[in-house]
Amino acid sequence: MAGASGSPDNAPVAVARQFGEQVPHSRDLGMRVVAVEADQVRMRLAPQLWLLADDDAEEICTSVLYSLADSAAGLAVFAASGELTPIATLDLRMDYLRPAASDRALLAQARCLHLTDDVAFVHCDVLSEGQEQPVATGKATFMRNTRGKRFQAAGEGDNGA
């Protein structure tokens, strides 16, 4: 698939495809990038017993949905911008609409809605595989280009003046 630049081998797409193997948290949870297209990313997370809310639960723990949405949304920022610059999650608001069944994989579909020089805005739906209605939906905001001038606390470095 082509990335933001139209090139099938651009850096953001390559990073997204290797995401599950390179980031320990995503690897441990079993996240896998399924598709990267322009400003969108789809990720899949196969159900595993240890992801359940508790031993007797028939639903996946909501914190797992949060991790999946955050990962997919962050990758959507890279896909939309076409460049690999440091980002940081500023805010991720999730609405849980229904339990995530423990016998179905989770699919996250994230789309970057708007980019500025400093901030990215992303929408993400999390679905149970084979279902049309999401189990959760979220909005994320990311700070872009976080590697820059160091912010100084008031009074720091000014000799007390």
List the main descriptive attributes of the protein structure presented here.
161 residues, Thiol Ester Dehydrase, Chain A, alpha+beta, 34% strand, disordered N terminus
- Name the quaternary structure: single chain
- Give the second-level CATH assignment, the architecture: Roll
Radius of gyration: 18 Å
Number of strands: 6
Report the uncertain regions: 1-8
| Overall pLDDT score | 82
Q: List the total number of helices.
A: 3
Beta content comes to 25-35%
CATH superfamily: Hotdog Thioesterase
The N- and C-terminal alpha carbons lie at a distance of 56 Å
Widest sheet, order of strands = 1-2-4-5-6-3
Which sheet architecture does the biggest sheet show? 6 strands, antiparallel
Number of domains: 1
What's the CATH topology label? Thiol Ester Dehydrase, Chain A
Order of helix and strand elements from N to C terminus: HHEEHEEEE
SS content category: alpha+beta
Residues in helix, %:
10-25%
Organism: Spectribacter acetivorans
Protein name: PaaI family thioesterase
EC number: 3.1.2.-
Keywords: Hydrolase
